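Quick check before the chapter quiz. The format below is the same one you will see on the exam, so make sure you can read both the input and the output lines.
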Amino acid sequence: MPGRARPDAKGQLTVDLEVRNPQLWDVESPHLYTLETRLFAGEEMLDRVVTRFGIREIVFDKDKGLLLNGRPVKIKGVCCHQDHAGVGSAIPDFLYYYRIALLKEMGANAYRCAHNPPAPEVLEACDSLGMLVIDETRLTNSGKEYMQQWESLILRDRNHPSIFMWSVGNEEETLQSRPEGRRIVASMMRRLRQLDPTRPTTYGANNGGVTEGINEVIDLRGFNYNLDGVEPYRKARPDQPMFGSEVGSTVTTRGIYRADTVRNYLTDYDENFPAWATTAETWWTMAARRDWFMGGFVWTGFDYRGEPTPHRWPNISSHFGVMDVCGFPKNVYWYYRSWWTDEDFVHVAPHWNHNEGDTVRVWVNTNADEVSLSLNGVDLGRKEMPRNGHLVWEVPYRPGRLKAVGYKDGRRIVKVVETASEPVAVVLKPYRSVILADGTDGTVVNVEVRDRKGRPVHTAQNMIHFTLEGNARIIGVGNGDPSSHEQDKCEDGEWQRSLFNGKCQVIVQAGTTPEDILLRASADGLEPASVTIRQE
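Here is the expected output.
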């Protein structure tokens, strides 16, 4: 039914529409509808707006946790900055979809925009792929300028079905426990209720069991770390739903298994964390055992430039990510994937290229019930997998074949890691091999090297050179090394990047004509590789 307004009138026009038997938007089946709104003056169309939206029911229950369309859903979330290897914060749309898809594969179902309003394309990717979102403003402030920013954020984003909470800020330590903080947030919440009465507010509070200040008025209590305050807070405020707005913060460097104090690398195990934080296993075990604790958001989904905690120079990016700045998984990724998905798999770390005489800590992540380990056919024992945990063997190194077998409901799940020899060939793995010739689409191509038997060489550090033929361009390269000072942009046209622990990445952006393009990669002494990418 069309709505009508008088010429030159100012006001709000409401039109009721009925959707019969709607398909609901869900993290597992993110069904979207399209609404087209047209503005006419007589027979002349003056404007047209197309809005994608979803229909879903979300309930925050103090005892049952989060209910999405009537079923309990644990928040398996990550906090993310807008930052990727090769491009920084100037991220093209296709790369947002790539990043959100990587998080979904890990089992994540929620994304916190930390700590500022996201690009609209982030929300579009989350709408399309099924990812719940905390949309967060930059500062907790009710002054005129900041309230305008708050209002603009709500008006811009409120039709996105992925958004399930609004966040009024993060760790305002001089304000959050004071009456002034309470009054500021009450003002922000009052304006939110006018613009969007359907969603609750939260705040990233790093003050543990404190109930005063912002926590008095906020709808959903978000805990930034300080999880020892969760139980006391629940006793004090039993009617307020709770979750971890920022948790974890394991610091790791992909592919490193001995700490390096020169390059400032940390071991790639779930063991190092800042004083204020915990390991992945500690926080998730705590959250998983409490139905009323809705889950949490890991700091962070990906490494990002800056904050190289606990180190400084020569680090130029963080170690917090479950994945590095390229989106290559670290081992903590496999911990989350074990307990955030029902997929049958066994992951064994580390690689199996070490020195004779070393004793290697072998970590196994899986959701299998039991795991047995053997080296070159010699049994190293069978162990029961603790729920939400991991397994460790101390193994004297011998070159060869390390084999883990998981046992789950009568099924055997096998994972083998082998000692690799010297690399002989470059291998290219495109995220997509068909892209749109619209000048904005593109693809990510991941690079590794393999030995003569086709085994990946995880210790390789070769310099890889790239050339691109056709109407498209390379826009960035990276390798996930937090201490690499190589250029992400090669303006002289000589694109190259060294492997870091066996991997690097090149990002290609489409041209404007529908023609095939050819990406070549080479390294001194190795067989080169090429991949054809079709532009349509």
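If your answer matched, good. DSSP finds eight helices and 29 strands in the chain.
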